[in-house]
Amino acid sequence: MTVDEYMKTIAILFFLSFSIPFTLQAQEPDSLPQGKLWSLKECIDYALANNLNVKRSEYAVESSEIELRQSNWNRLPSLNGSAAYGYSWGRGLDPVSNSFVSQEIKSSNLAANASLPLINGLSIHNTIRQNKKAYAASEFDLKDARNDVMLNVAGLFITVVFNKELVDNAQYQLASSQQQLDRTRKQVEAGALAKSEELNLDAQVAQNELTLVQQQNALVFSLLQLKQALQIPAPEPFDIEIPDVNPEDLILDQSSEEIFQIARGSMPDIRSAELRIESSAYAVKAARGNLYPRLNLVGSVNTNYSSSAATQFHPDGTFSYSTVPIGSVNGEGGASVYAMQPNGVFRDSYGPRDQFSDNIYRVLSVQLIIPIFNNFNSRATVQRSIITNKRAEIDAIEISNTLRQNVETAYNDAVAASKTYNAAMRQVSAREEAFRMMEQRQQAGAANSFEFQVSQNDLFQAQTDLARAKYDLIFKQKVLDFYQGKTLDY
């Protein structure tokens, strides 16, 4: 397994070892710790404050909340107002008197309309319940997004920790070979050893120097990747705090099936998938509500004004009489009648305020809407919502299966990591003793430089394997604690 593959495998484990319990309240960008070592918790909090995926998920929660509020508001009456102003000329219909006149008319109209749903096949009620479940699911999606950020940062953090330990090992190896080279040079100068022994050790020192430079470069690159994940500029001083952990304190006391059953009730992606099923089921009921009759209470108020009615007649209390012919009989002159008309004057005093007040028109009605045929749009909506519900069920099954696979894999990996760690401990102990004896033999002239180099390289490889096995054991056991919902603190 390559170092990159190993890092991906144990990324999740490192986070669990040191970051729980965490508060999800993240740092603001201006709270950047200066002149200190960053702990994993500080890295996680800072990343949560700046990660774009987390912000996107937060906006998704806000959007779901708006949808929920809107579905509740749909129970309230709708109220709309309108206003219109017009200008006409020539022969036309007076909008106030409804008589034909030939003049310029300025008119305006004010109206208000309201509608209250009384019965709608429980469509609004089920939509509210649908959006409640969707809102709760979006909150679990936000938790899942935060977990992804935590795991990503933790993976980069463990890469730095691992590279730091490799740098320490490389420095120790270089110091050891340099000391051996210094002793060999003195022996060569004294004529006790051949010059080739010095040259071989000098080449080994050069190789160890190259290894140290490579490990230092890997450490710098891993620090850069972590800073980029935190969105910290590259020139900014930054280093991490190495946690103190002991893998021997960890105990595996649960079966994989027991851990899986506990994890099903705690993982946010599982809870989100379950809520999506419930939300889509209510969506089916809401869509079916559109197939039933709807009953609405409707009301409106209207009024208007016309400039043609702005002149109003004012009687003075007197009357005048006039003769008006009403017809003829057998060609003879028709009879006449007398008409009495009031006397008075016309004044321009019937303004907009008076007309708006006098022309108010009110309507209150009950509206029954029976869906008969609408190109099968409502039925298509029902069918689509049923398919969405079935897909949500499949997604939930898939997520549950993935969780079971992850738990079983983590469990088997933890068992295997424990065995690997114990074997690596024995290997390092044996290699250290072998290297100690090789140093003594080389100093006594009983071993050559090539044998010394082989022994030293074997020790360095054993120490590297032990470091890998150590973190592998710690984090693979800790992830099982995470699935069980235990409080993890170091």
SSE map:
Blueprint: H1 3-18, H2 40-50, H3 52-73, E1 78-88, E2 91-93, E3 100-102, E4 105-119, H4 123-189, H5 195-230, H6 256-264, H7 268-289, E5 294-306, E6 312-325, E7 336-347, H8 352-358, E8 361-369, H9 377-444, H10 449-483
Antiparallel strand pairs: 1-4, 2-3, 4-5, 5-8, 6-7
Outline the structure in words.
Mean pLDDT is 80; it is low at 1-31. Helix 2 (40-50) crosses helix 4 (123-189) and helix 4 (123-189) packs antiparallel against helix 7. The protein has helices at residues 3-18, 40-50, 52-73, 123-189, 195-230, 256-264, 268-289, 352-358, 377-444, 449-483; strands spanning 78-88, 91-93, 100-102, 105-119, 294-306, 312-325, 336-347, 361-369. With 490 residues, it is an alpha+beta fold. The strands form three sheets. It has a four-stranded antiparallel β-sheet, with helices on one face. The protein is built from ten helices and eight strands. The protein has one domain: Outer membrane efflux proteins (OEP) (Up-down Bundle), CATH 1.20.1600.10.
Protein traits:
490 residues; alpha+beta; Outer membrane efflux proteins (OEP); 4-stranded antiparallel beta sheet; elongated; disordered N terminus
How do you describe this structure in short?
The chain is α+β, with helices and mostly antiparallel strands.
How would you sum up the major sheet? 4 strands, antiparallel
Low-confidence stretches: 1-31
Can you give the helix content as a percent range? 55-70%
What is the structural class?
alpha+beta
CATH superfamily: Outer membrane efflux proteins (OEP)
Examine the secondary-structure arrangement and name the CATH architecture.
Up-down Bundle
Order of helices and strands: HHHEEEEHHHHEEEHEHH
**Tally of helical runs:** 10
Overall 3D shape: elongated
**Please, what is the average pLDDT?**
80
CATH level 1 name: Mainly Alpha
Beta-strand percentage? 15-25%
How many structural domains does the protein architecture include?
A: 1
Distance linking N and C termini: 28 Å
Over the alpha carbons, how many angstroms does the gyration radius reach? 44 Å
CATH topology: Outer membrane efflux proteins (OEP)
Strand ordering within the main sheet: 1-4-5-8
Number of strands: 8
